[in-house]
Amino acid sequence: MERLTARALGSLTGDILKQVSGFAPWLRARGFRVGIPETLTAMNALIELNLERMDEVCAAFRSIYARTPAEWGLFPSLFEQYFFGRKAGREEKRPLQPESSTDGSAGGDQAERPPLDVVHGFLAGYHPDDGERYALRADEAALKEVVRLTRLAVRRMEAPRGRTWRRRGKEKIDLRQTMRHALRRAGEPFVLKRLKRRSDKPRIVLLVDISGSMKPYAPFITAFAWSFTRARARTQIFLFSTRLLRVTSLIARKAMTGIPYAELPGLRGGTRIGRALQQLLERYPGLLNRHTRIIVVSDGFDAGHPQLLHSAMRDLDARVGRIVWINPLLGEPGYEPTAKGMSMALSYIDAFIDVHDVPTWQKAVMSGALR
């Protein structure tokens, strides 16, 4: 976070500080995601800027406050509205002026920007989040039903035993419940109450392929992954294409609003299923035991070496309790799992199912494929 010194503050008047400190809240009311760090950075920038050249101030503030393409396009009109008091009426429309260079002169080779309609400081028919490219965003229309089916599927799963109450071959006595029962019957503890074992939550590791061939199914699969974060299960979610990335908390927080490409580093085109499974075995061995269910969501098109996928599936099958492979292409007429990657994995899969929408997910749950 930027810090302001007393000497730096002395070069700015109180009116300027007050005006700049109120700029971030004013922008937040118009959809910008800015706060105190941006305000402090802007104040530091003012110390070095020539305040008589407001075009320089606008350019500097634009790089500080604007984060998305939509915010970048809106910023000049909002800057002008706030600092010059030129408020756009409901029907007022005017084109934004083309950007000027840092020395104040317009670039001769710069192409003229098409006019943008501005109403109340916003582009007409434009939302501040428009222009943001999202790698994953859940299908809100199907979300409620998907969550209901996922919770039903988790309840039907066999959960491992929780804390063990056996000692030397005998169950542990629940002394509190025994005494309460005795007090209701003249105080004689003729009936010994036992502590019951509480079953643990099912353990699930969800691996989702986000390569280009899976893009048509991304909205539903994102909702599918998010639904497991709302079920009573110990779930860990991973994305993979050319590498493996753990995204459990990211899916839980941002699957509804959208996850930008910038927050998924290293996930590029192509698919290396064998490499991703090998990274899971090497980096997260604590997640893999006989109580774990592995759910792989992929069409099985693997650009890696088939032997790597074969060895990874063999090692994974030896360590976990069940492997379920969800292939959205199974519902396509005439599809057969003849790809090298898919054929290598088939011998180690306990359930091979088609899930690409709500009806197919309901069919898989009712058939007990995950049990």
Structure description:
This protein is of the alpha/beta class. It has 3 domains: 6-132, no CATH class; 164-197, no CATH class; 203-366, 3-Layer(aba) Sandwich (Rossmann fold), CATH 3.40.50. 39% of the residues lie in helices and 12% in strands. It contains 14 helices and 12 strands. Strands 8-7-6-10-11-12 form a 6-stranded mixed β-sheet. Strands 1-2 form a two-stranded antiparallel ribbon. Helix 7 packs parallel to helix 14. The longest helix is centred in the middle third of the chain and has 17 residues, at 140-156. The two termini are 50 Å apart.
Task: Kindly list the characteristics that best describe this protein.
disordered N terminus, 39% helix, two-stranded antiparallel ribbon, 6-stranded mixed β-sheet, 371 residues, extended, Rossmann fold
C-alpha Rg, in Å? Answer: 29 Å
Beta strand count: 12
Low-confidence segments = 1-11, 86-132, 164-169
CATH homologous superfamily name of the largest domain?
Answer: von Willebrand factor, type A domain
Assembly category: single chain
Largest beta sheet: what is the strand line-up? Answer: 8-7-6-10-11-12
Number of helices: 14
Q: How far is the N terminus from the C terminus?
A: 50 Å
Number of domains: 3
Q: Helix content range of the residues, please?
A: 25-40%
Give the second-level CATH assignment, the architecture of the largest domain.
3-Layer(aba) Sandwich
CATH level 3 topology of the largest domain: Rossmann fold
Order of helices and strands: HHHHHHEEEHEEHEHEEHEHEHEHEH
